[in-house]
Design brief:
The chain is an alpha+beta fold and 190 residues long. The protein is built from five helices and ten strands; from the N terminus they run αααααββββββββββ.
Amino acid sequence: MTDLDQLTQGLARNLKSLRAERGFTLDALAARAGVSRGMLIQIEQARTNPSVGTVVKIGDALGVSITSLLDSDQEPQVRIVPPEQAIRLWSTDTGSHSTLLAGTEAPGPLELWHWRLMPGDASTSDPHPPGTTELVHVTAGTLTLDVDGAGHALPTGTSACFESHVPHGYRNDGTEPVEMTMAVSVPEPR
């Protein structure tokens, strides 16, 4: 079984379990997540590899992190994530990528990411649920952080925090690669 097969089967198992725990029908979750019922069925049957955006929407609708949807193991008290188990969720042909380093559910979903953006690359994100906060720390290059239509230049060593319930994204307008660490905190489901 390939890593992708394991990821697809883990996502199928976790989605079914989390949907059942919350008492959501396929139709109810589809409406909440803005994802078609057919897509949810394909994911639960491990017949598709959905986009990162789709997985994020489903996680937001369920009130869990991407880690919870993709994780195949029960979490022990101390969960150590070696580099080879970090999950690369977005990449470009030029070498840009985002990697989910670790995540937890208590008190609400919290994710730790490493990003690399090559010159000229960008990644945009749909708004997250109200109360979601992102923290960004730039370790190399100058990141252009777009939040609700406004651009903010963040040179090496600069950090920022923002509420990400609005359209937002990350750009590298410079000539050097941008490296950044990001944490995303999602509020507990109500």
